[in-house]
Predict the structure.
Amino acid sequence: MLIQDSEPLVSVVIPVYNEAESLRPLMTGLHATLETLHQPYEIIAVDDGSRDDSFALLRELAAHSPQLRVVRLRRNFGQTQAFAAGFDRARGEIIVTIDADLQNDPTDIPRLLHKLDEGYDVVSGWRANRHDAWLSRRLPSVLANRLISAVTGLQLHDYGCSLKAYRREVVQNLALYGELHRFIPAIASWQGIAVTELPVTHHARRFGSSKYGLGRTLRVLLDLVTVRFLLSYATRPMQFFGLIGLGLMGFGTVILAYLAGVKFVLHQTIGDRPLLLVGVMVIVLGMQFLSIGLIGEMLVRTTNSGREPAYRVREEVNSPATMAKQPTAL
Ligand code: UDP
Ligand code: MG
């Protein structure tokens, strides 16, 4: 038996929402697998406002298992927020996320960790043989994965799989909300972090029911727009809005120049031409976009400065802050 007071190497984070029947077999499976690593570990179960016996059961399980930490959120905040609560508390160098419903298989965890050891910072599970309804879950998922891959530039087969392994610094300091947890690999990859995927086992749900339906796909798509914008322009809104603004103003100027020609060269009246209205409106719209860009720049400077660095450092040599934080191999 290892001394569990020492800092754990691996933290397993589990979001739990009404999964009482699954918790006991899940914990048995997790402990069995994690013991084979012969490294200190912790399991952080985040009860996301369950209305069944999940919390009582977790508390009971924790009484017999010092590695199990339980966090209970005040209400149902959603899977992403549950992950965030777990990440904030995780002490391990490596953070593994897994669903509570036994659809992911704990025995895949050692393979994820070995993949990390090959030099990756994020290993994302890929449910190559997924056991969910085809029309309502798998088809939208295939389409969404293609779209997300195209928009974010990181090609993954399965953005939605919860079974993932991260080095801790990847998920630390990430502001997670909405459906953003599934975009962590894309955000990470944009930061220059090495991301890969690994086929994992997937089981049909044995107990309880899925918390999601088709509605989530829409929310994921909206968050995709947010992520794309944040990745590209969060620190330079003027380059996004300003470009649109300048384009519109240029377009409007061409229209008005043409109308001026019509009036002063051809001596025709232009007061009744709809084009005049279009030209004026397009210029006003362009000025508004420019102003939004300026306001955005001010917001970036007042709200974001110091929190989100515009760059990411891979490593530093002889720098006091990083000396103690060498990555540990398994
Ligand atoms: N979950 C959660 N809060 C929620 C919804 C879900 O913590 O509001 C947890 C749930 O208990 C499970 C995981 O997130 O462990 C994935 O949920 P689910 O299995 O319903 O999603 P699916 O696998 O069907 O995509
Ligand atoms: Mg599930």
Summary: The first helix runs from residue 20 to 35. DSSP finds eleven helices and seven strands in the chain.
